[in-house]
Amino acid sequence: MQAAWEDPRIENGMQQQFRRRRELMAAGGKPLGWKLAFGGPTALERLQINAPLVGFLMADAVVPSGSTISFSGWKKPAAEPELAVYLGKDLASGDDRRATMDAIAGLGAAIELADVDHPSDDVEGTLARNIYQRHVVLGGCDTKFAGGSLSGLNARVFRNGAEMANTSEFEALTGELIAIVCHVANLLAHFGETLRAGQIIIAGSITPPILVEAGESIGFHLEPQQPIFINFAAAV
């Protein structure tokens, strides 16, 4: 199997994405970590890729649970309940599964807020736009799940207070957790970056993306952790 970056769409898109990341950091932005997308079997086949796409997260993208977000200027708002992987050690290219598991300090809940403003079939363009990333809500690191074990976790997703999903199938739409963390380390190394202790990875939506409208709310309860939620401002 060819490496992800041997696909010219990914090579070119990531080069543009990293250029934007460097610009943000030069302007004082603080890196937070990374995001994954399109890791499910259907998405991989549709986009003709062999691993999830990778984007970046900046610290100023984080909004507290319970916040209200405006969609002003957005084209197609979406919310995605995701697992957040917290890294306690650096991971280098080629590190094996055991090293990857040892590097995972814990897991937590996340809701990514995205603006699907570009056709996903254009892999290069999607990567160049950092895979629609706008904001992220984080629930914090639960060290009981160090090593990346999903045993004992269950996800409940709520829309406007009504439960819309209840699942423990966390990897069906994302790919296997340890494998995709390894993938991030390998991909970053190709572009001269390192997956570092203290960073997080949001691992991809565990449900199909939720297209949201003004005035709605989305909640995510990653049991047994505390729930998180986000509100969307009413239309004006």
Architecture overview:
The mean pLDDT is 96. The longest helix has 19 residues. The protein has a single domain, classed as Alpha-Beta Complex (Fumarylacetoacetate hydrolase, domain 2). The chain is an alpha+beta fold and 236 residues long. It is built from 5 helices and 12 strands. The radius of gyration is 17 Å and the shape is globular. Helices cover 22% and strands 32% of the residues. Strands 1, 2, 4, 5, 6, 9 and 10 form a 7-stranded mixed beta sheet that branches. A 5-stranded mixed beta sheet has the order 3-12-11-7-8, with no helix packed on it.
Key structural traits:
Fumarylacetoacetate hydrolase, domain 2, globular, 5 helices, 236 residues, five-stranded mixed beta sheet, alpha+beta, 12 strands, seven-stranded mixed beta sheet
